[in-house]
Amino acid sequence: MSRPEDILPPDLFYNDLESRKYTTSSRIQKIQSSMTHRALSLLSLTSPSLILDIGCGSGLSGEILSQTPDQGTPGGPHIWMGFDISSSMLGVALEKEVEGDLFLADAGQGVPFRAGTFDAAISISAIQWLCNAETSEESPVGRLSRFFGGLYASLRRGGRAVCQFYPKNDEQKKMVSQAAVKAGFGAGLLEDDPGTKNAKTYLVLTVGGGEVDGDITGVVRGMDGVDVMDGRRKGQQRKRGEEVKGSRGWILKKKEQMEKKGRVVKATSKYTGRKRRIQF
Amino acid sequence: MKLLTLNFLTCAIKTCKTSPASFPLHPRDAELEIIESEINLPFLRNILPRLMWEEIRVIASELGLPSLPTTPPTREDLVEGASQAQATEQAEGEAVAEVEEVPSQTAKDLHRILLETGIKEGKLVCGNCAHEYKVMEGVANFLLPGHLV
Ligand SMILES: C[S@@+](CC[C@H](N)C(=O)[O-])C[C@H]1O[C@@H](n2cnc3c(N)ncnc32)[C@H](O)[C@@H]1O
Ligand SMILES: [Zn+2]
Q1: In this structure, is residue B41 part of a structural domain?
Q2: What CDD domains does its record include (chain A) (predicted)?
């Protein structure tokens, strides 16, 4: 199967026709939606946040970010801003009247927001495009470095980013992850369905926060369901399905146990398990 | 483009990164629009400490909007009768009490200006390099010619 980024630059590949075909395909909608939910679960947001969507396209992920916890979006509804290099893709997003703000921008040129703007960032099926430089003045390494450098600065301390992408090969996977680490991120790679044709690669990035190691093998501890490709940190990892104490999932499980014992339990709502902030 | 976004966007040009004049970008020939949305109190509370209030005031006045108070609202200002909003704690750290918080007029005003008021057409101009970013249908064009990256 040929890769679109080997055929044309992204703004030409995603023209009006392709953008419409892409957005209306129920197969694509389904895949992008499930990857967005996966990325959201890795972001572990507990309350409405400011999120950047890189390569937001027609807003398939954005629509999910705007939903409530009852509709399946943890911590939502979030406020998001998205940018994309294809004006046709953004045109489709405008037609759909998505709630986020949209920009025409090239991730390889950086991220034009002031330091500490976002709580989190998400990018679904986009950053493999950065590995292709369109002109001789640009190099993939230069573009990746401007992107991750800008992204790192635009996230607040303790913020996270999850980038699902389609690396062409191991070399590309490494080039992308290393660029993120070089920018200062704590980084880990997570692979769903490895070795199958449905394999999905997620680059999980954290900003500051002490507990994260600077190298690619040091994945954020305590993050649900992250399997690091490198086995060195396995010991510290949470088993799949095990809930973090005090998390929403943990509370729901406890409630279920209590109910089974015949205890009266408060009804679950969108506030259940939310972090309570200090009241002034 | 929401005015909220203008409080975070900076000039994309490399040489402007270190110049304080590259933020905020200044709207020019702006046509405004109001797009109503549901108020999101927890979001307002979250974003409040991250806002650069003086810059919001500057932009509002440049756009000819009613002038904003000189001091930013506090989180406390966002809810009606905040003192009742006390959650009780039950067994094993379970958060139970749910108090429906009522957004104050301040919260509604903030929502109006930051999330419902936007620039539909016009441009955004960098105060340092004078580069103009066009806004069309609410979408700003931040693509740079190669030599400016
Ligand atoms: C497969 S689509 C994914 C769109 C959207 N994230 C989704 O999940 O539906 C890839 C998107 O990445 C965008 N893209 C490619 N290179 C880009 C770049 N350098 N900067 C910004 N967006 C880019 C394309 O225009 C396209 O909209
Ligand atoms: Zn500038």
Answers
A1: yes
A2: AdoMet_MTases (cd02440)
